[in-house]
Amino acid sequence: MKVHRTLLLPALAVAFAAAALAQTTSKPADDLPDSPAATPAALTRPNGPTVVMDTSMGRITCQFYQKQAPLAVANFIGLAEGTKDWTDPATNKTQHNKPYYDGTTFHRVIPEFMIQGGDPTGTGMGGPGYGFGYEFDPNLNFDQPGRLAMAHSDAPDSNGSQFFITEQAYDSLDQKYTLFGQCDPASVEVVKAIARVPTSGDKPTTPVVLKKVTIVREGQPMPPDPNEAPAKRIDISADVAQSFLIHKTDPVYPTEAIQARMMGFVRLEAIIGTDGLVRDLKVISGPAIFRQAALDAVKTWRYRPYLLNGQPVEIQTIVNVTFSLSFGK
């Protein structure tokens, strides 16, 4: 795209070869036709970390093509997390340890095409103060919605910070823009909504803000969605809470209590999150000798905190942990 970043942008295809059905036949196995092989394009799948873009109109989630576009992926992650220095186009000052994308806007949106962001000035003319080379993979093209790609000007090696996300396939972009990620179907719906806001030219009349960009690596949890309403919290009795319990670990009976033949119970107050994990836990009453054992055990318990209609809820409840000599033996 031109530095007015007239970025023309769109899509990679994940084509799957049809599997041959196995059938009983009297023909020798050597005479059977070979099953069709998957094409290289079908085998080109996202293979890097995930980027979560929380916007003022919803969440966009994409996974990187780290193997196919290592420079673009490393650049985007460095800017997003503030580990890569960049020059503020408004002040011309170098920025250290400052996330680049948070608070920027989508300055160019075109229905049935794409949305474009990554410019702190919001004009389409700004960037990080440097450029880098293009990366093309012959098996990665704009053949499906949700392609995440770098915008660039007509100058060579002008990738920088601006990016775009397509809402449909757009083969005229193939092998012209660095394609470095794929967004999921729900995110494409957010892209479509952003692309259809009122505009002056291609620029939204009301800014669509990229509030926060988060990089999620393998094994890390997704960040809470700021656009979601807080979960409903219900206060239930200890007996009712038992019906939500799906995994329970017995507490370790303290050795000193066994030797002293002590019994008793610890009363705890617990907050259980929508993921079923025990979040907050505090002792209300109970012998001091049993308290830590009770806390350690209940922290590992797991619940299924859903109402009958399937709605996830937070649970506030009481948990009673009993210690008896028969249990402690």
- The poorly predicted ranges are 2-30
How large is the share of residues in beta strands? 25-35%
Distance between the termini: 74 Å
Structural classification: alpha+beta
Number of helices: 6
Question: What is the name of the CATH topology of the largest domain?
Answer: Cyclophilin
CATH architecture call of the largest domain: Beta Barrel
- Helix fraction? 10-25%
Mean pLDDT: 87
What does the largest sheet look like?
Answer: 8 strands, antiparallel, barrel
C-alpha-based Rg, rounded = 27 Å
Spatial order of strands in the largest sheet: 1-2-9-7-8-6-5-12
> What is the CATH superfamily classification of the largest domain?
Cyclophilin-like
Please trace the helix and strand order, writing H or E for each element: EEHEEEEEEEHEEEEHEHEEHEEH
